[in-house]
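Listing S7. Sequence submitted for prediction.
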Amino acid sequence: MKYTFAFSLIFLLMMMSCGTSKKTKSASAEQPRTQQPKPKAEQPNTIGNTDSEDSLNQETEEVEEVDLSSLNAVERYVYNYAGIAQEEMRLYGIPASITIAQGILESGSGSGKLTRRSNNHFGIKCNGWQGDKVYHDDDEAQECFRKYGDAKYSFRDHSLFLFERSRYGFLFDYDSDDYKSWARGLRRAGYATDPRYPEKLISLIERYQLNEFDKEVLGKTGDTALPKPQRLTLTNSEYYRVKRGDTLYNISEKFNLTVEELKLINKLKSDHIQVGQELKVKN
């Protein structure tokens, strides 16, 4: 009886051992299913980016690189600043060809002493300027000129100089690609005293085909609308109403007065003016 019980106990223990082993094997066989790799369908972006990069590299390779060492001073100036002049044309309607030619002429193709010291490409004098200044011999000894941190701000001031002054308003009535009329008009408006100034601008424009930059802005049809300055309206034909952003300096420039003349006419003791204030602009 004892032997029969012992044998039964051994047999039962063996059966339990086999069952435990099977369960362990079964669990270890199912475990890898939770670590399967992500489907390939989730990876197309990697392939797409590779194709895009290859395409971009091909396009980059197709762009012709400019050997700057092969360009003369004027050509380098055009290369560096034509894009800025075109943007100014879009914003203010001044032909890019005129702006580039003026910059070439007045800055010595960017290598003039004043330009190198101040990034001032158009010889714009201080006249109430609150920014940095440099002093340079011009019509008189040690005249004050505006200094810019970047040349693009000089181009912007040039645009505003023409756009905001009434004496240049008639220029914007010319066709936007009529660089010859613009060149002669600048001289007539008093921009330069050199009687050959228009011919110098026209010669530069035609020699270096600067009018092609105008055509790019105007588009194939040549009828792209460009900004024009608003004609000034006076109250009772003799007064100007001050607007936000006005200063005595820019008002005096609009009406061909000096700041001192404007202050004298209006009996002003300081440069302070207010929006809505009426200033007399004619004697």
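Caption to Listing S7: primary sequence and predicted structure tokens for the chain studied. The longest strand covers residues 133-136. Residues 71-218 form a domain with the Lysozyme fold (CATH 1.10.530.10).
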